[in-house]
Amino acid sequence: MITLKRPTKEYESEALAFKQEFIENGETTINGSELLDQMDSYDEWLKSVTDNISPDTVNSEWVVTDTYFAFDEDDNIVGIIDLRHELNDFLKDFGNSGYSVRPSQRRKGYATEMLKLIIERAHQIGMDKLQLSVETSNEASVKTITKNGGKYERSFTYEGEEAAVYMIVLV
Question: Over 90: is that where the pLDDT of 151 sits?
């Protein structure tokens, strides 16, 4: 069982350890993190994700986005996931949500549960569908999406990688 919580200053040391685990695992991208992987300052990142929650303060290059850490029963960060309320031209292939599970916590069902909770959140805010994209080589994520009702829509290529777009209809 996991819970989703918005990032706060209180979670800084745990968040930085989460980020460091990706780096130590040779991973340069943390999907769904709103650039936590690219920012040097937790405070700057926290301000960015907090600003992006509201239409009044969202960065003009972004869309309104909810970002959450996923915590396990012991209150450890096991993942991160975001929910983009709409898609702009840049996001049309990437979709409404991205997520990552900490390398040491993979294959435990966390991604499936995180996506299930974000689907519930999307439904609560009035969204009628959720578009997700995934590199076709990422079999675990493809399974996560299809377990949550994702239906294949189309394929595209991004930076030389074959990817697929899936749609989840919210009812």
Answer: yes
Instruction: Find the distance separating the first CA and the last CA of the chain, reported in whole Å.
Output: 23
Provide the 8-state DSSP code for 58: -
- Model confidence at 171, in pLDDT bands (50, 70, 90)? confident
pLDDT for res 145: 98
Length of the chain counted residue by residue = 171
pTM above 0.85, yes or no: yes
Integer Cα distance of 17 and 4 in angstroms: 18
CB neighbourhood size of 111 (10 A): 25
Strands (DSSP E) contained in 85-127 are 97-101
At how many degrees (to 10) do helices 42-51 and 12-24 cross? 110
E strands, the chain, where? 3-5, 65-71, 77-84, 97-101, 129-135, 151-158, 161-169
* C-alpha to C-alpha distance for 113 and 106, rounded to whole angstroms: 12
Q: Is the pLDDT of residue 77 over 90?
A: yes
